[in-house]
Structure formats: structure tokens, C-alpha cells
Amino acid sequence: MSSPVLAVRDVGFAYRGAAPVLHGVSLEIAAGRSVAIVGESGAGKTTLLRLLLGLTRPTGGDVLFDGQPLDLRNRARMRAFRRSVQSVFQDPYSSLDPRQR
Fold first, then answer.
1. Domains plus CATH for the chain?
2. Which of 2, 6, 14, 60 counts the highest number of beta carbons within 10 A?
3. Nearest residue to 67 (alpha-carbon basis) of 58, 77, 76, 75
């Protein structure tokens, strides 16, 4: 089994002055796999996605890309990262080309 291309390990996040939104979340995503994040409104889906995309830093835990911590300050690494991952938002029909397999 290959190592995950993207992983979060024991990640937590809290907005400034607020209770934690995420606590102890772990997830591994293998190359070429699709993952859906579903849940109730306010469950932390968008916050987790922002962490996975490197748009927000976790307040605890690690976000890993190819086994290495995601460093938002390393521009070359972030370019490689952003070429390797993609999110599809709630309306996939406006995000995807139906003619593509």
C-alpha cells in the first residue's frame, strides 16, 4: 500500500476567541482517490476543507503532503501541492465537465 498524498493527523482548529471547531481529526487520502466530506451544517466541513487545501493553518496537529508538513510559506512546495489537489464544491455539475470521464 502506498503512502497517502494528503493527510491530516490529529488536527484541531479554533477561530480566535471561540470554542474549537475541529478536534482530533485524522484522515488519509491516497493518490487518485476521491473523498466526499458530508455532514450537518456547522459540523466543520468547510473548515476541514480549508485546512486540507492549505488555506488555513491548524491550531493543532499536522497537515501532510507527500509525507511532509504543509508549509504555507514555502512557495515552490505550495505550487506543487496546489497542482496535485482539487476540490469540487457542492454543485459538481457547475464544476465538472460532463463529457470528461
1. 6-95 (3.40.50.300)
2. 6
3. 77
CA dihedral (2, 77, 22, 42) positive or negative? negative
Q: What is the pTM of this model?
A: 0.76
C-alpha to C-alpha distances, 4 to 42, 90, 98, nearest whole angstrom? 27, 24, 28
- Pairing relation of β-strands 60-65 and 6-14? antiparallel
pLDDT tens, residue by residue, 70-83: 888 888 888 888 88
Of 53, 49, 9, 2, nearest to 30 (Cα)? 2
How many residues does the structure list for the chain? 101
Match 470554542 to its residue by C-alpha cell: 19
